[in-house]
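Notebook entry, structure prediction.
Reason for the run: the old model in the group folder had no record of what sequence produced it. Starting over properly, with the input documented here first.
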Amino acid sequence: MIAGSEKTQDDVVSSNAIRFKDVQKVVSVGDDDVEGELKDQILDMVEGDTLSITVVGGSGDLAKKKIFPALFALYYQGYLPKHFTVFGYARSKMSTKEFRDKKSERLGCRIDLHDDTQDCEKIMEYFIERVFYQAGAYDQDDGYRNLHAALQSEEKGHERANRLFYLSIPPSIFVDAAKGTSIGATSESGWTRVIEENTKDRATES
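New structure, fully documented this time:
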């Protein structure tokens, strides 16, 4: 389910009447089509733009088992732009290195695309180098402002910085996270889009 609007209009997510001031598109997706929906949102990137993908709830099981493997699969198949970053945002305290180590455990390459195992390992290594972690509360605007600053530091040098947020969180904290994302972390130069996880098997709180 996709809701599109002009940048000056309000978007409503699910039944919660959450106002996204600068979000141009909101998508609700089941966990059985994570890779497909991510690809659909990325394909209209303009050459030269940078893309920042933030997984809110990034330390949870679903992010580890499905979302990050899906993102790597898209990169492996050439769908991510040349300049991109992937951020995990969650309450758990950990370093970027610790986060990278956890996420790399579930990544894998498709043999039919690259015959050389060393080539696969190099591709995985580059992808992991573009993964970062930012700890913060889901219900405090300051956490999202800190995330915004971290995103900006990786977006320097690009005229347009597009941002895609994947909300992999339980329903009980969805409203707070959506508001914080809208208020504190939308892009100032490109589009901002949100993918809402619409599944009965939501990730555990992280």
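Summary: The longest strand covers residues 83-90.
The old model has been moved to the deprecated folder.
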